[in-house]
Input
Amino acid sequence: MSDNHSHEYNHEHTHEHDHEHSHSHVHGHSHGHTHSPEHNKIVLNRMSRIIGHMESTKRMVEDGRDCTEVLVQLSAIESAIKSVSRVIIKEHLNTCIVDAVKEDDYAALDELNAAIDKFIK
Output
């Protein structure tokens, strides 16, 4: 299944950006994978800010800015990515995994464990 997403956002420098992304999602377990619109909005807003921050940092490199300034920005981006990842993990545990266990869908736990292994390495 392929989804096309279009994002418009303003980051802290008030530059507008449009992005189109094509994603392919494959879920091996059978429980419904839905989240509240509020949760999705929070995650998408955080991701949009991260993308904007990455674009700004890329421009810093293109403009020949000092390497230490670029590294500080990359550190902030890494922290933001970890933060949004924690939001996603917590939501997944509180919704998808709770529902999967209620439905005896233990494959979802295996998938979560595999995802955590990839996330932590």
Q: What stands out?
A: Helices lie at 37-62, 67-102, 107-120. The mean pLDDT is 80. The longest strand covers residues 2-10. Strands lie at 2-10, 16-24.
